[in-house]
Structure formats: structure tokens, C-alpha cells
Amino acid sequence: MGAETGGHTGRAPFPPIGDLVTRSWTPGTTDAALSAIAATPRLVVALDFDGTASPFVLDPMAARAIPEVAAQMERLSAMPDTVVAYVSGRSMHDLREITEHTDESPFALAGSHGAQYWYPGSGESDVESAAAEEDGTKEELWEAARPIIDRFDGAELEPKTFGMGVHTRAATPEVERELFAEIDALVAERFPHWRRRKGHHVLEFSSRLEGKDAAMTALRERYDATGILFAGDDVTDEDAMRVLVDGDLGVRVGEGETAAGLRVRNPQEIAQLLEALADERAARRE
């Protein structure tokens, strides 16, 4: 996927994860890659939500961006030739709720891992794509999964537009392992072609095959971006990191193997990085 994207844009994709050196970014310091993305003519700033803009909370629908991130995203959205977006595995309905997104918002949204979009000025836009519903419908998956999930303390089913998520934020590691094994067995037997994703205390299945790499392509083409800054904290965000190209910047939040160029520790440091980006972008345009 990275090679195809690089060929389309004429710019080289980032090297494979094992070949990339990820630098830890220290708030208050300068970084050449951050300076370069601040200077790009047409910038898209795209953030994952859970664990990146927001800390993890036990109730997934209670998640909100920390005020410092929200303030810097608003600030960036007001700058010329700068687009801000949230890119999430959440369904569009839920993503709009947790981002407190209104019809007048200047923020773009990519939900369901790049299968749903909302653009300022035009509203919601679904993407036509192949699905794997020959195995069954999402309602059939929910019906089969719910009795399994209900047996496990601290587990929760999240119905999604194209599938489901199984959350274990309030469960013990032992419960998570046993539950995920049973759900995996169910899906392997009855929904074998659905896409599986495992993140921080969540197991997801979707009849749609898009990943966050698709969202990077859509945002780049929609806004003719000369640079994308994408930040995320989880395995699913690496789909997006791997298709970033020369002139882009990936930022990993927290630990884990990554194709990102920079690493920060938490949402608070994402806010500080966005502030540094906004300061430098504003100074270059004075």
C-alpha cells in the first residue's frame, strides 16, 4: 500500500517499520521534521481520537478531547491552508458525539476506519466499497456475539455501522484473553471474511475492508495536501503511518512498534506538539 501511494503522489513512502528510527519529541524543543511540516503550503492535521486526543476512559462514549488538544485544533483550523480532522474507528454517529461535532464545525471527520466521512461545507459522505456481508449481516453478528459478551464481567458490545467492537477496558487481562478467544472462534466460523482489528482493550470486526490508510488518501486528495501530520496511539493507526510519504509526519502516542517519525508520551504532549506546530506555522506566515 505504501508503494502504491508513493507512486501516485510522486513522493517516496516511509520505509518499513523495522527500517525507521523513531525519535522521542521533548516539549519545548525544536525538531526539523516538525518545522518542515509547519512550512508545508497546504497542511492536513489528522488525529486519532481515543488515546491520542482523549485519554482512555471506562465508558467509551464518555471520551472527550482534553481541553488543550481541543484548543490547538481550533487554533489550527482557523489558519489559512490548514485543515484539521479526526480519524477514528468509531462509527460516524458516535464520532460526532464524542468530538462534540456540529454541522457548523470546521473539522473534517473520517469514521469507521476510513469508510465514512464528514466534510465542512458538504456534510456526511459514505464511500462505496466492497463488503464481506456474504458471511452474514452485522445484526446477525451482534445477535451471536451478545450472549458470549454478557457472560464476562467488564466487557461491552459496541454496535458499529459496519460491524462491532468488543471493549474490555473494565475487564481483567484474563477475562479479555478468554473473551477475545471465544469471539475470534465465533467470527472465524460464521464471518470468516470480515476484517479483524485488535487495539488497546478492544477487538473489532468489520464487513468493510478499509483502514486508516484509506483516510489518508481521501484527505490528501480532497484538500490537495502537500503535507499531512497524523498522530495515533494504536495498531490500527499504523495503517495510516505506513502510507505517509516525504513531506508528511507521523507521530506515535505512547509505546509500541511504529512507522512514525516522532513519539510523544500522552495526549498532553500531543497538545504541546500541536501548539509548537501552530506557533511555527503562524510565525512563517507573518
Topology:
Layout: H1 2-9, E1 23-24, H2 32-38, E2 43-47, H3 67-77, E3 82-87, H4 92-98, E4 108-111, E5 116-119, E6 123-126, H5 138-149, E7 156-160, E8 163-167, H6 173-190, E9 195-199, E10 202-206, H7 212-223, E11 227-232, H8 238-241, E12 249-253, E13 262-264, H9 267-284
Parallel strand pairs: 1-13, 2-3, 2-11, 3-4, 11-12, 12-13
Antiparallel strand pairs: 4-5, 5-6, 7-8, 8-10, 9-10
Helix pairs in contact: 2-9, 3-9, 5-6
- What do we call the CATH topology of the largest domain? Rossmann fold
Secondary structure category = alpha/beta
Q: Beta-sheet strand percentage?
A: 15-25%
Uncertain spans: 1-19
* Estimated radius of gyration: 19 Å
- Encode the helix/strand succession as letters: HEHEHEHEEEHEEHEEHEHEEH
CATH level-1 class of the largest domain: Alpha Beta
Tally of DSSP β-strands: 13
Largest sheet: 9 strands, mixed
Report how far the terminal alpha carbons are from each other: 38 Å
CATH architecture of the largest domain: 3-Layer(aba) Sandwich
Question: In which range does the helix fraction lie?
Answer: 25-40%
Number of domains: 2
**Average pLDDT reading:** 90
User: Shape, please?
Assistant: globular
- Sheet with most strands: strand arrangement: 1-13-12-11-2-3-4-5-6
Describe the structure.
- The chain has about 290 residues and is α/β, with parallel strands linked by helices.
- It has two domains: about 1-130 and about 210-285, Rossmann fold (3-Layer(aba) Sandwich), CATH 3.40.50; about 135-205, Alpha-Beta Plaits (2-Layer Sandwich).
- It is about 35% helix and about 20% strand.
- It has helices at about 1-10, 30-40, 65-75, 90-100, 140-150, 175-190, 210-225, 240, 265-285; strands at about 25, 45, 80-85, 110, 115-120, 125, 155-160, 165, 195-200, 200-205, 225-230, 250-255, 260-265.
- The strands form two sheets. A nine-stranded mixed beta sheet has the order 1-13-12-11-2-3-4-5-6, with helices on both faces.
- Helix 3 (about 65-75) runs parallel beside helix 9 (about 265-285) and helix 5 (about 140-150) runs antiparallel to helix 6.
- The longest helix has 18 residues, at about 175-190.
- The radius of gyration is 19 Å and the shape is globular.
- Mean pLDDT is about 90; it is low at about 1-20.
